[in-house]
Protein 1
Amino acid sequence: MQNPHKISGLMIVLSLALAGCQTDGDDELVASNITGGAPAVPGIAPIVVEKPKYPSLQQLNRDIQADPSAPSRYNSRGLHYKRWNQLTNARRDFDKAISLVPNYFQAYRNRGDVYQKQRKFDLALKDYNKAISLNPQYGDAFHSRALTHSKIGNNEPALSDFNKAIKLKPADFQIYHNLAVLLSRQGQFKNAQVNEEKAITLNPNYALAHNGLGVALARNGNFPKSITSFSNAIKLQPKWALAYLNRGKAYEGNRRYDLAIADYNQALVINPAYEVARKNRSRAETKLTLLNERVPVSNDVVPDIYEPTKL
């Protein structure tokens, strides 16, 4: 006799696939170590987003002990392990969820994210492909697959998947930002700017997008506006050394070497091992000395502005 939990679990997942829901999926995938809880940028109405209240590992274990045939409970515990970077345990739970319900498309996407973190990109793509084949309306799987393509240099498939993800999840500000990162890498700074602005419209308190917008503006030579964007990122994340580094480079591009030095110093306060900031500070100090001595300072080569974030 078939296990009733397996039958009911399969029906639930199939119904979700037809509806395009992502109940058990993990929507947290964004390539950054930036955390929430920062103050809003002055002049921008704050968006109040409650932090998700995840169950403890003890509770998740109790849930599984109470019903070891429920696939969603293994998926939930797998997400817990993934959040804490316990990837082997996470993959084991996603494997179990899939063994109980072979059409569990969220579990395929989540396991793909584990493979992506482990840099097993072929396996990640295989799982994302499976999730999408089971549910072609699964925007999160397109987003995850786009990120994986980006990591291995498959730019055209990445662009295609980002655009599909946006069509399916037009209110997901993280997708616009990650697309902008890829566009910046390709030198499409105007398009990157448009996507960062869209991300900021959806979430004005998203520091990554403010920093990314600053990158796009600086790459286009608009240093005054880029400085404003980097400043907004810093207001949201005051301990973000990269944002100070980027603003310092923008100040250099605007010939404000004194302010550039101050930002490099602050980046080094936050991260004393930040050798790029140390090197840039030395360069800016030399330029400031030359400027004070009324020696012409060449600014033909604009200092490189770092990427908004790593995909």
Note: Confidence is low (pLDDT under 50) at residues 1-40, 44-49.
Protein 2
Amino acid sequence: MKIIAITLFVMLVASAACYAADTRCVLEKEPQATEPVGAVVETVGVFVGKIVSACEIACTGERKLTVENETGECKIFPFCATTKVADSTFHTATFNQLKKGEKVKVEYTEKGAKAVTVEK
């Protein structure tokens, strides 16, 4: 019985020491910046490239458009109900008409794709 009591006491003291060390580390950590100091975070712009994928998640209805430019940079744009899609002659198109490999110009905001124009 004494062995069990001593073992429990040692375990309790060890866990308290670990908790105190973790708490001290958390309190001593400096806050980390999510963006470099002085950086300009791009929230609006235009991205031109080829469609890598246009997918819709069936259960949630969420749509995403992945576009890669000539330098290999990829961006994923959330595609919402207000996103306008048009071909190069400005005829209205739909998300389902976007095909892999098509060259597009995506106008976007911080919320996602605002307009997608298919370029010929």
Note: Residues 20-29 have pLDDT under 50 and may be disordered.
